[in-house]
Amino acid sequence: MWFAGQAVLLVLVVPYGYMERDLTPFQLGLLFAVAVLGALLGAVTSTAVGLRLGGGEAGRGGAIVCSHSVNALGVETFRQARTPDELQAHTNTTLRSLNRAVIVVVSPGAGLLTDRVGLRPVLAAAVAIFCASALTLAIQPHLDVTVAPPAVPAGWCQWGCRVCWACRVSQS
């Protein structure tokens, strides 16, 4: 579901920035650069936040907060913990193919719908899709499952690297 909302945004963010917000190309590029920094921060901290929040209600709240940027993280973590190793590749490939197919189908539809009804109503639909995605994530029973953090080998930080600039661990 999240991929449907993302497909709408992929099509409409640039026209919305130019036509509705009167952004210059520089301003739009700066906006995307800041978004990338936010994504990087989320990627660097998501494991620590997930381990700190754990499962149950706290994990559910964390999953909702992170729904837009790392929606798949919570679902994939639990799915991978529950899927036998020999089925991991098959399961991940199938789901990634389905997710990409949603983008291929929804993006052109979003563009055509925008031509008919305008930018704002279609962006409002994307917001509704993201809210529905967060809601379904919040009520899923799999979020009550806890996944034990992996054992950390000696000399490695909690994120699995030998020299980690994020947690400032430097042990060789």
From TrEMBL:
InterPro entries: MFS_trans_sf. The chain crosses the membrane at residues 29-51, 122-143. Keywords: Membrane, Transmembrane, Transmembrane helix. It comes from the Bacteria. This is MFS transporter. It comes from Nocardioides endophyticus.
